[in-house]
Amino acid sequence: MGFKRYSAFAVAREAMNYHLGWERAWGSPAPKKKYDVIIIGAGGHGLASAYYLGKNYGITNVAIIEKGWLGGGNTGRNTTIIRSNYLQDPSAAIYEKARSLYETMSQDLNYNVMFSPRGLLMLGQTEHEVRGYKRTVYANNLQGVATEWISPQRVKELVPIINIEGPRYPILGALYQARGGTARHDAVAWGYARACSQMGMDVIQQCEVTGVRTEGGKVVGIDTTKGAIDCDKLGMVVAGHSSVLAEMAGFRLPIESLALQALVSEPIKPCMDVVVMANTVHGYMSQSDKGEMVIGGGTDGFNNYTQRGSFHHIEETVRALVETFPMISRLKNLRQWGGIVDMTGDRSPLISKTPVDGIFVNCGWGTGGFKAIPGSGWAMAELMARGSSPLAEEFSMYRFREGKFIDESVAAGVAH
Amino acid sequence: MLILECPCCGVKADETELQAGGEAHLKRYGPGSTDEEFDGYMFSRKNPKGVHFERWRHAYGCGKWFLAARCTATLEVFGTYPAQTKEPPADLQAKIKQKRPNWEGYK
Amino acid sequence: MSTRLQKGGRLIDRSRSMSFTFNGKKMQGYAGDTLASALLGADQMLVGRSFKYHRPRGIMSSGAEEPNALVGLGEGGRFEPNQRTTTTELFDGAVTSSQNHWPSLEFDVGAVNDKFYRFLPAGFYYKTFMFPRFAWKHVFEPVIRQSAGLGKVPHARDEDRYEYAYAFADLVIVGGGIAGLAAALAAGKQGKRVWLIEQTAHWGGRAVVDGVQIEGQDADAWVKETLEALEGMENVTLRSRTMASGLYDHGYLLMYERIADHTPGDGRPRHRLWRMRAGHIVTATGAIERPLSFAGNDIPGVMLASAVRDYVVNWAVSPGDRTVIVTNNDDAYRTALALLDAGLSVPAVVDARPEAKGDLPEAVRARGVKVLEGKGIAKVKGGKRVTGVSVCLQAGEGAELETIPCDAVAMSGGWSPVVHLWSHCGGKLNWDEKQAMFRPDPNRPATGADGEAMVTAIGSANGHLSSADVLADAHKAVGGKGAAPGAVCATEAPIMPVWIMPQGAGPALRFKMWLDPQNDVKVSDVQLAAREGYESVEHAKRYTTLGMATDQGKISNINGLAILSDSLNQAIPATGTTTFRPPYTPISMGAIAGEARGEIFQPLRKTPMHEWHETHGAHWEPVGHWRRPYCFLRTGEGVHDAVNREIRQVRNSVGLLDASTLGKILVKGPDAGKFLDMLYTNMMSTLPVGKCRYGLMCNENGFLSDDGVVVRLTEDTWLCHTTTGGADRIHGWMEDWLQCEWWDWKVYTANVTEQYAQVAIAGPNARKLLEKLGGMELTKAALPFMEWREGTLGGFRARVHRISFSGELSFEVAVPASEGRAFWDALIAAGEEFGVMPYGTEAMHIMRAEKGFIMIGDETDGTVIPQDLNLQWAISKKKEDYLGKRAQERSFMASAERWKLVGLETLDGGVIPDGAYAVAEGHNANGQRNVQGRVTSTYYSPTLDKGIAMGLVKHGPDRMGEVIDFPVDDGKVVKARIVDPVFYDKEGEKQNV
């Protein structure tokens, strides 16, 4: 494949020929016998892991194996929020790394992922929440993450449609990250897939892993619906299905799979430029470039692999947001959907070696994975290529044994 | 939107009356246990895509905890039984085996 | 032009004229009209603009699938954007406006996009707008955002109300066409609890429009008769204007009833959202007609053939004077007949099939209409309205054979069963090659709690298109006794799938064939997606936005995936469908939120003294579902001054705190002591009757989760006080262990939080105040510190605890909740001579901080263990086990490097800002500044007239006197000295008098 560079000029040139000249964005190869590295899972995290293996470490004999279609899991089902205003140092480090990589991702990948640093607010609605967010601001400023605490009046200026004087939970201020925002989720997966393909990696879709082969405690390959494939190193980057794969490799993870739901309204003209999260009442909302209000809330409570959630969670979320933004009462819910998120014991991710030599996991992103994609891939690539990574250090799966948790619920409540 | 029958009060309880409590039949490890044992008890989870034994509380009903066998891939409920049980009742296990021949069984 | 016919119209009442406006222009319609039929009747075909190219858009359908005819409806607090005119009943005085254009519908500047359509193919934005980097946020995105979006933004607060409802049924039949009616009749006769719901205001569906004969009579008459029979059955519930929005697991069916959309302001709730639990669901949801893909098929005046027939028959509206019909099936000929019956002209029927010789084509021919076999439409002529069609060979490349002048085109590409509800919970589909449709696979239905099928599809929703088959299927599906109702209808020749017209159309034509007219997705776009590797149906959808418009692909999906399959050279079932997700058609957020808004957004818990607080200046703070007074404001007083006043009053005389929200849990039984020893870090079994002890609770992960005073009431009864937020959680926690782990222990718990009102009477005059009430001996000898007694105070039954969270002489008195307010009033009256006043949570917080007492949620945050807070004295060394003990033995928990509690005193007497961190030298491996501690509580102390704080600092207790730096705002640094956390009355003399 030649891989034409994308640009306005290229689009104009192809327009003359009714766009019949465009080539495939990524290949559709059959698997080879062996790869240096296999990444299972062609979602954002898996593709980013592969991309940075190639880009940062020159490792390009890589296959990315995908059960369904690339980007078809949580990468294509989230509410696309990007922020790094986390409290704990390890989280702030990896999310800020990710956020900074998002800033230049469109140029790096030559694919417009529409990163839009439109600003993000987390509302303080109880004294306790206010203290937590003020603490986060101080922590962020020492972590190199630019955030500030703003007044209710400033909130109202940034979000004219908000109700700051609700009778039950008046808004007391907000944690504001001006460089937080959103991106086009599918484009992130597509851009990475195209870039991986350009580096000579094989993105293999419609290929389900059926077994993990080990010899003497070390990984040697995988079995798939497209045959056996050998590898030296194996990265498992499959979010909700991590436990299923770990079981194949003979170990257990501190992971539970839960449904998380989201919904959008019908599109309306622009009325809210920033992303607003209201954690006391459990809901968050932004407006897409298409004009839909994109809404999310909390997870369901029980183990679930169906990608369907329970309606009362939608109710709770919409109630919270109608109270926060009364005007949405007269909008209509266009579509709701669910994804399966992988929750760890402390709700922070795993980027870790495993009991099997050569197998690495990157999972447990829970409800907040999209924003982490480039940072997660960066750290995973470093861990797989060099055996250790400062960004991944604290996210080891063995931290639970030591009692060394990374607990973000401290300040931020539930939502991502 | 699950419905689970509370084995204590007999009510077919709507999910909104219930509180989920995660994997059932975990053995508690206290002082004197190894790090691995304690870590396993606290954090390692089977999290199967399929038959799952789990804890529920009829929180907005009779208040009692109970256990359920449920398929996490289809949400089919095989049965519920009292929390005061060390392992799933034999007849329930047999019923599951009949409905899910490939199930590896309770272990 | 489109006009109102002189006679006819099944649904309109010509005696009831209704006026409405469209873009300010006054128009007339009739009762029974939809907005769409009324607009057409007033010759308003152009009603909006498309999303991307701002092309003119007209009414395309007559139902839920309408992609184009969306308007802003209403004004002020009743304005709603994106209202679908085809499903909106007309009401007198309706104010409507078209959407997505500037400055006007007729002249839209945004339509310039249409001139550049070749430069704006699917996904062009992924390939462009990348340089320079800042330009996306500052230039491109704002422009795109402004031109995108559809409806206007509502601004005023919603004036309507919404309600929730719950219901249960054995069988819910969704869809009030003849299938649903026949099924309901058969099931009703079996005595089942049956609900039959219909999304429109009318029963009978298509059959009544198409003139089907059922049981020897007109469908209309049969429908009427059947409805009467159903209304006579007590076990059957009928609801029109009720749409099944979504099916969720275990038979949870969400139903959206539009009660007052057509009678706004009449006082009824606007919408009612039903949460139905159904034993079984029958989908009789019918089918939706597909458009055909020919160039210019988006021009206003091109409509679905069935819709044209609906407008003529139901509302006596003719979409055009001369209507060309284009089809690949026999059904569309019914439209020709309906138009002819209404005296309108049908210049031709263009049929893509090589031969059209069925009953219906012959009937049309017999009426003198020419039928052009094997032909297609090369393109539609016109701009804002159809002016003619150019006819070509279907098998060719589009060379024009003739032009037929016309002002409307009725198209039919076949029918797609409505399979949304069937699919929501995982029901699977089969591709029916013969009928060219996806239909439910009866072997792979959605399953319920018992693992059995919970949905059955019947009638057209199950792929049966003739009325006779529909009725037979419906009757059989519900186990109807005897023969199914019989129907007589024309036999139809098979459909010929046509996904592109003409078959050999070149790129220029394919660039003008719309699949999704709202989002402007064309045949060429889907082909481009396939060419670029977006091969999965989900990729193609997301890349092109096909099916992502407000109709969610009802119009476009099947045609789009047929094009995709063709491009990929694979069969349609290999491509599959995108996932069907609720809601079926959009439902209002207002209905989802229901009545829960404003004051009743969430339940409000009130203490017995709540009303008193409300009338005495309470400045509220939400704490869980309670509201507690943060302080009590006096006229003209600020919050800060009020707090300081309250503290000074307590320190100098006496104040009252409403402590009723504190959790109170009774733990009783022979094993209660043993149980509490497991629950608390300290020993509770040894607490003597009559005494109180402060206790700590950890979770099994070792972290401090709650604290409070435990009271031993009797030999086998303890009363555990918890934090306000912890009451329900801790009670649940106790029950969890008792029911699931130590179920053989004989312990009983009861959460009695709301059974008692509790008041803290704190301050040097506290005893004097209570002694004025009289009834109990309260001297130090009679009731020493950390003990309790029961008796009466001023006639109130009271349990009096000598405990103190303020550091002052303090009594916490519990009285029955029903007497709480009277007791409070008595305290206020008796305390007058001491200047007694209530104090709020902030004064309480500051006073406890002055004393160095920890607060759950301030000093703890879920990551803090008791050892961090120097609370080793409250951890029993004698116990082998307690919840959290094993966890605290893990390496990081036992580490000497953990941050520990200390007091902090600024060098300048100021207050350290909330949440500030103390920095250490250097940076970590990720470039973050190293830190060595943080503030957990920080206040101005009016007692000491300076800032005081507590914090967690690395090796803190070993570093007394050391000064550490807290960088705060604007580059400033607050310097603070590490001190003992007890700032006030270190010896505890004041509380122990």
From TrEMBL, chain A:
Localization terms from the record: Cytoplasm
Domain of life the protein comes from: Bacteria
Main location: cytoplasm
Pfam families hit by this protein: DAO
Keywords, ordered alphabetically: Cytoplasm, FAD, Flavoprotein, FMN, Nucleotide-binding, Oxidoreductase
Membrane-spanning ranges: none
Catalytic activities: sarcosine + O2 + H2O = formaldehyde + glycine + H2O2; sarcosine + (6S)-5,6,7,8-tetrahydrofolate + O2 = (6R)-5,10-methylene-5,6,7,8-tetrahydrofolate + glycine + H2O2
PROSITE patterns in the record: RHODANESE_3
Required co-factors: FAD; FMN
Rhodanese domain span: 37-81
Family in the record: Belongs to the SoxB family.
Name of the protein this chain belongs to: Sarcosine oxidase subunit beta
Source organism per UniProt: Albidovulum litorale
UniProtKB/TrEMBL annotation, chain B:
Entry-linked Pfam families: SoxD (PF04267)
InterPro entries (alphabetical): SoxD, SoxD_sf
The protein's name: Sarcosine oxidase subunit delta
Organism whose genome encodes this protein: Albidovulum litorale
TrEMBL record, chain C:
Residue ranges of every copy of the Aminomethyltransferase C-terminal domain listed in the record: 900-985
SoxA A3 domain residues: 512-594
Segments crossing the lipid bilayer: 164-187
GCVT N-terminal domain segment(s): 609-879
Keywords, in A-Z order: Membrane, Oxidoreductase, Transmembrane, Transmembrane helix
Pfam families with a match to the protein in the record: FAD_oxidored, Fer2_4, GCV_T, GCV_T_C, SO_alpha_A3
Superkingdom of origin organism: Bacteria
InterPro entries with a match to the protein in the record: 2Fe-2S-bd_N (IPR042204), FAD/NAD-bd_sf (IPR036188), GcvT/YgfZ/DmdA (IPR028896), GcvT/YgfZ_C (IPR029043), GcvT_C (IPR013977), GCVT_N (IPR006222), Sarcosine_oxidase_asu (IPR006277), SoxA_A3 (IPR041117)
Family: Belongs to the GcvT family.
Name of the molecule in the record: Sarcosine oxidase subunit alpha family protein
Source organism of this protein record: Albidovulum litorale
